[in-house]
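lol forgot to send this yesterday, sorry. struct tokens for the thing we talked abt
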């Protein structure tokens, strides 16, 4: 396997660091528009993993830095062809999905991403009806991927990604009938400035966060199909494990709701995220001021008029999520709350989850826990594809594959070739 990693930001950097400990691939080209950023990642990997195991016949030095323009499919295809790439892993903003997706297919490579092509709200009824849904553009191209005999594994991060794997596991092994697949994400993370004061510093790309949180959330019901509601609707208190505690979660647009119903039989699918009142208030203010917009505005500057997108200004003004790890404390939890009928015919409710502790991820990888948890799962998926345990063609989500081997490899100790990440299954009281 020869991997082209597109993007060396927080998630891309963590992907390289995790993959470096494993021997399933021959080459990983770490690429970024900013070549220096890709070079820093490669330098870290080479410095920390010089003695890492290599596949038989493969020498060390499996990581190479390269410059790429993710907005240009020809740039993606050319770099993939130059290095004989078999798998393109997209770790840049979702606005670049169409071009990276097209570049991978043009190069005859398989493709993975952690966020899907963007949605567009319904033009006249955005809070009831869907317009263009997340991933619609990619699924529309499924025949092209099938004809080419290539696989596009979409939504293979943590959410979407691991949560979808959990949903498939619950369907196969825990339930005879599923009432609801409810993805629930929460954390007790705190970021402080140098003086120790708590500050507003999103742990993930603010560009992506604005897109997810201010778009109309999507819900799926078997008798109704996909429909939308208002942002931050239907708040509920959800109890998260391992000391995180009770967090208020609200409806947010997310890929799981668009993926799970395609492969798993359930009566309802939802996604709720623990944002907190302060975060919700800031996002609402950004929207009211028009600072969430992506259309460039003409702005006067000392060097003359320039055009800049308001959302890009917000992103530039906030700390880079890849850099806040040393000032962050706490844990983040991703999982799916499943209700329905157990295989014994009795009512059942379980929460399947994975928790990442920022203190541990910083000590082990110098990566903050949110980006590290996202990065873990596509690496595991790549190994399953490299070994032939997972295989397919067309545009597929994580639910299309057997969850058992993924969760086994994830939990297996690193000393035995696994990833050493235990996952949890909590029985919850049924209504």
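and heres what i got for the seq, position by position
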């Amino acid at each position: 396997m020869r991997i082209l990693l597109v993007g060396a930001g927080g998630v891309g950097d963590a992907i390289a660091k995790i993959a470096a400990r494993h021997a399933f691939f021959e080459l990983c080209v770490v690429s970024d528009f900013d070549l220096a950023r890709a070079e820093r990642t490669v330098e870290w990997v080479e410095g920390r993993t010089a003695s890492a195991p290599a596949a038989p016949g493969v020498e060390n030095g499996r990581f190479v830095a390269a410059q790429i323009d993710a907005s240009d499919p020809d740039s993606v295809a050319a770099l993939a062809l130059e290095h004989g790439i078999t798998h393109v892993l997209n770790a840049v903003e979702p606005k670049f999905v169409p071009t990276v997706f097209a570049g991978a297919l043009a190069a005859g490579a398989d493709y993975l991403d952690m966020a899907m092509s963007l949605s567009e709200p319904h033009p006249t009824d955005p809070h009831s009806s869907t317009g263009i849904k997340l991933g619609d553009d990619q699924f529309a191209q499924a025949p092209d991927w099938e004809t080419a005999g290539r696989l596009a594994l979409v939504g293979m991060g943590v959410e979407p990604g691991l949560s979808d794997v959990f949903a498939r596991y619950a369907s196969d092994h825990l339930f005879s009938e599923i009432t609801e697949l409810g993805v629930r994400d929460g954390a007790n993370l705190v970021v402080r400035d140098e003086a120790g004061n708590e500050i507003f510093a999103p742990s993930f790309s603010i560009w992506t966060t604005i897109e997810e949180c201010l778009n109309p959330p999507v819900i799926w019901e078997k008798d109704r199909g996909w429909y939308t509601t208002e942002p931050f609707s239907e708040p509920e208190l959800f109890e998260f494990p391992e000391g995180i505690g009770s967090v208020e979660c609200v409806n947010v647009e997310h890929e799981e709701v668009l993926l799970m119903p395609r492969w798993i039989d359930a009566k309802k699918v939802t996604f709720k995220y623990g944002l907190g009142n302060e975060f919700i208030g800031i996002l609402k203010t950004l929207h009211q001021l028009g600072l969430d917009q992506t259309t460039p505005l003409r702005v006067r500057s000392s060097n003359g008029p320039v055009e800049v997108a308001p959302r890009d200004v917000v992103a530039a003004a906030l700390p880079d999520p890849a850099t806040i790890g040393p000032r962050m404390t706490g844990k983040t939890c991703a999982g799916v709350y499943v209700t329905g009928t157990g295989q014994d015919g009795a009512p059942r409710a379980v929460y399947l989850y994975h928790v990442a502790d920022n203190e541990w991820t910083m000590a082990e990888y110098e990566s903050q826990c949110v980006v590290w948890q996202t990065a873990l799962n596509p690496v595991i998926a790549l190994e399953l594809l490299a070994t032939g345990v997972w295989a397919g063609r067309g545009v597929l989500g994580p639910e299309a594959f057997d969850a058992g081997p993924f969760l086994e490899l994830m939990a297996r100790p690193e000393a035995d070739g696994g990833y050493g990440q235990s996952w949890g299954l909590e029985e919850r009281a049924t209504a």
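The radius of gyration is 21 Å. anyway ping me if u want another try
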